[in-house]
Design brief:
globular, 226 residues, alpha/beta, four-stranded antiparallel β-sheet
Length: 226
């Protein structure tokens, strides 16, 4: 059972989009940005002890891609290198030889992890990643998503861009991208509601663990949902 009124969520989304849009600028409420602002769902938890309670982690695929400009890289075998080159939007790739050159150097692996938002890896390589790179990608929360030769690579890229992860670490605040300001209001609404309902399903006491929910565009003011 959702404690959120759809109408109030929708009005918060409207306010957020208005702040960010040119109309908002003309009305003096917002400023036009020269990049597309991401919309983030910000969660404050309560009645949760990250030291004692089980730390949850879960991923969910949203109906609309929240971060179309998300930078991906595939750690690829020869067949997937060819496939990556043939995509309409070329996908950066690294071969086993490229990975060996990093020589498990922590600084270089960390630099690689920071360069991209997420990674894919050919199924044949996935088990070799820890041996080739050490734990760096896992530590950064960016262990690659496996992709088989039978899967459509463009669709897989889209799937990774559509997937968000809720993971409780040591603090009781979480933030996930649920959209961007060029999306339709309905698309943001669907992504936001699905994200919240999925989060609630991960929490031990469900709504009793939620202290606050806000949505916020990159440069905008937070809009309280709960």
């Amino acid at each position: 059972m959702s404690k959120l009124q759809a109408s109030s969520v929708r009005s918060s989304i409207k306010t957020l989009l208005n702040q960010s849009s040119l109309d908002g600028q003309k009305a003096g409420e917002g400023k036009k940005r020269n990049f597309v602002e991401t919309i983030e769902l910000q969660i404050g938890l309560k009645n949760y002890d990250p030291q004692r309670d089980k730390r949850f982690s879960g991923t969910v695929k949203l109906p609309h891609v929240p971060r179309p400009r998300m930078q991906l890289c595939i750690l690829a075998d020869a067949a997937d290198v060819d496939r990556a080159k043939q995509l309409d939007e070329e996908l950066p790739f690294m071969t086993v030889e490229d990975l060996k050159k990093l020589n498990k150097n922590k600084k270089l692996v960390k630099k690689l992890a920071q360069k991209y938002d997420a990674f894919l890896a050919s199924e044949a390589l996935i088990k070799q990643i820890p041996r080739l790179l050490g734990p760096g990608l896992s530590k950064a929360g960016k262990f690659p998503t496996p992709v088989s030769h039978g899967e459509d690579l463009a669709r897989k890229v889209n799937e990774v861009r559509s997937t968000i992860k809720f993971q409780l670490k040591k603090v009781l605040c979480l933030g996930v991208a649920v959209g961007h300001v060029d999306m339709e209001e309905d698309q943001i609404m669907q992504n936001t509601m699905l994200s919240i309902n999925f989060l609630i399903s991960l929490l031990k006491k469900q709504w009793q663990n939620v202290g606050s929910l806000h949505i916020k565009s990159t440069m905008g003011k937070p809009q309280r949902l709960f």
